[in-house]
Structure formats: structure tokens, C-alpha cells
Amino acid sequence: MKIDEVDRKVLSVLVENSRLSYRQIAKKINVSAATVLNRIKKLEENKVIKNYSSIIDHSKVGFEITAIMEIKLNKGIEHVGNKAYEELKINPHIIALYSVTGSYDLIAVTKFRNREELNKFIEKIADNDIVEDTNTKYVLDILKDNSAVKFNHPLFSYLLTPEQNSKKPQAVNKKTN
Asked: Distances from the Cα of 21 to the Cαs of 30, 55, 124, in angstroms?
């Protein structure tokens, strides 16, 4: 599916607030509510929009601890389709799980209510037969926690077609002495 400028504008508004009505979104991006409805329907059908959810402040619901865990699997273990891997994917403490390059195979972002929960989780993962090694990092402070791409940010202007880019004002480089 090709994403055009209107789709990007709709996505930008939804990323900021997915509770807005079609009419409110239309007003923000200067198109009709019918256009917004059709674009959102198309984006949902093509799985560009996978879900609508709320962003929860985990600390306010008792999950004070965030930890990042690197997991190295035993050599020869295929993690895709493996039962233990599937168990990691559904573990309620793991809020994100990534297959990565480097010396570890997986990175898990985890949330816990206390250190005891974290310690039990580390022990359980380390005791798993397919796990060779783990490296856990205790998060001291969350400086940024936002997985949404800001489609309207100037850094993503390359997403526009050449015609759309040529309509944008060009930055002027000035040398200062």
C-alpha cells in the first residue's frame, strides 16, 4: 500500500490522539470527514493501523521497575516457532520483545512491581533450557518512552513524493562568521 500525504496527516493526528472523531481529524488536516473515514478504513484494512490503545503510566498502576534484558539462546536454537520463545512472547512482564543482531539474540523490555518480582523473572528465564545467557539492565530513569513515529516531523520529509517535497519551503543555509 502506498501512503500519501493525506494518509500521513491522518496517521500523525491519530498518533497524537486516537480518540478524536473523524470530523475533528478532518478539521485539523483540512479535508472532509468522509475522506478521513475512507482513509482510516483503508489503513485498517491494510494493517497499517494495527490497533488502538491507551498509553498507561505503568508507575501509577504499581509497576515501578523497568528492566531491559538481553537473552542469548543456545546455539542451534531457532527462536521463531520455538515453544520457549512463544512463552516469552506471552509473558505479561515482557511489554516488548525484539530479535536482534549482536552477541545476544533477543532484547526484552520488562515491567515489575518490585525487585522480588524482577529477581524471580530473571531466575525463571535463566533456568530455561534454551537460554545460554542473560544480561539485565535496571532502568534508573525513563527519558523517552514513545514508540510512535512522528510522520509530520521534518526528518521524515523523504516519505513524501518528489512533487510533495518540492512544494515544501527549502531551508536556507546561512554561514555565520
From this structure: 14, 19, 45
Do domains 1-54 and 58-138 share one topology? The answer is no
Level-2 CATH architecture, domain 1-54: Orthogonal Bundle (1.10)
What's this model's pTM, rounded to 2 decimal places? Answer: 0.74
Query: Which residues are within 8 A (CB) of 52 and not within 5 positions of it... i.e. 6 or more apart?
Result: 18
Q: Which residues contact 125 (CB under 8 A, 6 or more apart)?
A: 69, 71, 88, 131, 134
- CA 55, CA 53: separation in Å to the nearest integer? 7
Domain limits, the chain? 1-54, 58-138
Instruction: Say yes or no to pLDDT of 6 above 60.
Output: yes
Residue 177 has a pLDDT of 45
Separation between Cα atoms, residue 13 and residue 11, nearest integer Å = 5
State which H helix or E strand residue 132 sits in: strand 131-138
At the top level of CATH, which class does the domain 58-138 belong to? alpha beta
Transcribe 49-103 into DSSP letters: S----PPP-GGGGT--EEEEEEEEEPTT---TT-HHHHHHHH-TTEEEEEE-SSS
Cα torsion 97, 98, 104, 110 to 10°: value is -30
User: In whole angstroms, how far apart are CA 39 and each of 7, 36, 153?
Assistant: 6, 5, 20
Mean pLDDT of 22-49: 96
